[in-house]
């Protein structure tokens, strides 16, 4: 995708002259003239301070990671409500969601033989644990599901390692998601996956697995790229490797959590809504600053800035901090169910869950007519290099509502090291540049404002 994205950017760069300080004017976008001043003010407000980055840093430093069911998540939710009220947002409230409560506990993997030594893992989210004494078994390395099936008679009683190099998330994540059940069905006692992400500094990447109905549930963990390569070399030399995996992972009863909602009520059509947001939960490592604290803060920032600048659009702008995206998506489902009657009044939904690195624009899914509008609006973002509009946009949290009511949907897009960082202990604020956070907030604010303000509805 980087090559495709680079080509798209190059084309956009050719279409729009190098961005100047001011928002460029085009004859065919004269309809945007009433919004240029507001767009400039929102962009200027975002770029003039590091308020959003500071709020994101405070979130991570104070509450740490925010796994569903954890007291950290609930404390952060309470804080967000108070902060939204302090920002002067309207109708600030929480909406209850029952969430799964998975607990990692202590976990370890070691080479048991020939010579014992520890390796670096993170158990996969929603995995079962091992017996207290751990599971010791011989290693079997495979590189695809086809190779797993071909080795079916050797899988029984083994710890299976899926050594699949990271290409794209979509291509590689299936080994994490379904590998445990596929190997379990053939009699494996545990599964390891090469971490789903580019090689880091011996950093394991967690993430959810999905057990298939009717198959044995076996424990599963992500192994660092480096340790995966080491085991591969040992096997290639003909060494019989025995591993010992110990995991305390288990579920507690479902816990109480909440989606956080704040609004800027529309001045003319308050019942028509533009909903924007990110997911407030994270994995239980790092501080969830990239996944997805940043998405929460920059969408929330759009409302804070509109309020501060006294820019109250025609329609209601609503920010939602969804709970439980990572290991259940129950927040997004609860939003759809609770707001079912008003979903037809949702003019658009925007999710930011791809990090807040240098924003390039938005992915958009909607009609051709709406896309033409969105492309025009995006020209207001040329000055911050965020005027791209790519073929599809959505998100795990807005997905249930978008599909239910066929709502035009956006995702904030950017260039950054998202997959290097997310779901790892390295997901911390120091990887995030304050200016890029400000630009991301500006992009969301301008797109949201114009959609909420323009007289005709985006269709
Ligand atoms: Zn996320």
What layout of secondary structure does this protein have?
Elements: H1 2-15, H2 33-47, H3 51-63, H4 71-86, E1 90-103, E2 107-113, E3 117-119, E4 121-123, E5 135-142, H5 145-150, H6 152-155, E6 159-162, H7 169-185, E7 190-194, E8 220-223, H8 225-236, E9 242-247, E10 250-264, E11 269-279, H9 289-308, E12 315-322, H10 330-338, E13 346-351, E14 358-365, H11 368-378, E15 388-390, H12 399-405, E16 409-415, H13 418-421, H14 434-453
Parallel strand pairs: 5-6, 6-7, 7-8, 11-12, 11-13, 13-16, 14-15
Antiparallel strand pairs: 1-10, 2-3, 2-9, 4-8, 5-9, 10-12, 14-16
Helix pairs in contact: 2-14, 3-9, 3-14, 9-14, 10-12
The structure holds zinc ion (ZN).
Residues 279, 291-292, 325, 353 line the site of zinc ion.
What's the mean pLDDT score? 94
Largest sheet: 8 strands, mixed
- Small molecules bound: zinc ion
What is the straight-line distance between the termini? 29 Å
What does this structure look like?
With 459 residues, this protein is α/β, with parallel strands linked by helices. It contains 14 helices and 16 strands. It has helices spanning 2-15, 33-47, 51-63, 71-86, 145-150, 152-155, 169-185, 225-236, 289-308, 330-338, 368-378, 399-405, 418-421, 434-453, and strands spanning 90-103, 107-113, 117-119, 121-123, 135-142, 159-162, 190-194, 220-223, 242-247, 250-264, 269-279, 315-322, 346-351, 358-365, 388-390, 409-415. The strands form 2 sheets. An 8-stranded mixed sheet has the order 1-10-12-11-13-16-14-15, sandwiched between helices. Strands 3-2-9-5-6-7-8-4 form an 8-stranded mixed sheet, with helices on both faces. Strand 6, helix 7 and strand 7 (190-194) form a beta-alpha-beta unit. Helix 2 (33-47) packs antiparallel against helix 14 (434-453). It is elongated. The protein starts with a helix and ends in a 6-residue tail after the last helix. The model is unreliable at 1-22 (pLDDT under 50). The structure holds zinc ion (ZN). Zinc ion binds at residues 279, 291-292, 325, 353.
């Amino acid at each position: 995708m980087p090559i495709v994205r680079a080509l798209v950017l190059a084309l956009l760069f050719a279409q729009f002259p190098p961005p100047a300080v001011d928002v460029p004017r085009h004859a065919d976008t004269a309809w945007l003239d009433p919004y240029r001043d507001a767009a400039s003010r929102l962009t200027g407000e975002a770029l003039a301070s590091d308020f959003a980055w500071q709020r994101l840093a405070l979130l991570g430093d104070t509450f740490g990671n925010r796994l569903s069911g954890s007291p950290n998540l609930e404390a952060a939710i309470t804080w967000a409500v108070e902060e939204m009220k302090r920002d002067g947002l309207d109708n600030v409230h929480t909406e209850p969601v029952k969430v799964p409560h998975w607990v990692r506990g202590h976990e370890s993997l070691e080479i048991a033989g020939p010579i014992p030594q520890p390796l670096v893992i993170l158990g996969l989210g929603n995995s079962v644990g091992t017996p207290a004494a751990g599971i010791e078994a011989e290693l079997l390395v495979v590189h695809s599901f086809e190779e797993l099936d071909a080795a079916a008679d050797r899988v029984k009683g083994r710890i299976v390692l899926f050594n699949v190099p990271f290409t794209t998330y979509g291509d590689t994540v299936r080994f994490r998601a379904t590998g445990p059940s596929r190997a379990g069905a053939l009699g494996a006692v545990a599964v390891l996956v090469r971490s789903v992400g580019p090689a880091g500094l011996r950093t394991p990447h967690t993430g959810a697995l999905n057990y298939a109905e009717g198959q044995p549930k076996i424990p599963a963990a992500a192994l660092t790229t480096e340790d995966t390569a080491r085991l591969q070399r040992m096997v290639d030399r003909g060494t019989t490797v025995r591993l010992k995996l110990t995991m305390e992972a288990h579920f507690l009863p479902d816990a109480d959590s909440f989606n956080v909602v704040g609004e800027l009520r529309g001045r003319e059509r308050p019942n028509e809504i533009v909903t924007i947001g990110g997911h407030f939960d994270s994995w239980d490592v790092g501080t969830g600053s990239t996944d997805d604290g940043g998405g929460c803060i920059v969408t929330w920032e759009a409302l804070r800035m509109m309020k501060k600048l006294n820019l109250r659009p025609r329609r209601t702008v609503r920010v939602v901090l969804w709970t439980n995206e990572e290991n259940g998506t129950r927040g997004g489902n609860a939003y759809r169910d609770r707001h079912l009657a008003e979903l037809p009044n949702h003019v658009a939904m925007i999710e930011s869950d791809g990090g807040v690195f240098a924003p390039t624009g938005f992915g958009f899914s909607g009609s051709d007519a709406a896309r033409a509008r969105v492309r025009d609006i995006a020209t207001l973002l040329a000055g911050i290099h965020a005027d791209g509009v790519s073929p599809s946009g959505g998100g795990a949290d807005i997905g249930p509502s978008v599909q239910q009511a066929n709502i035009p949907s956006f995702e904030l897009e950017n260039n950054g090291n998202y997959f290097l960082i997310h779901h790892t202990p390295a997901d911390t604020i120091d990887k995030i540049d304050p200016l890029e956070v400000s630009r991301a907030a500006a992009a969301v604010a301008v797109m949201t404002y114009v959609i909420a303000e323009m007289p005709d509805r985006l269709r």
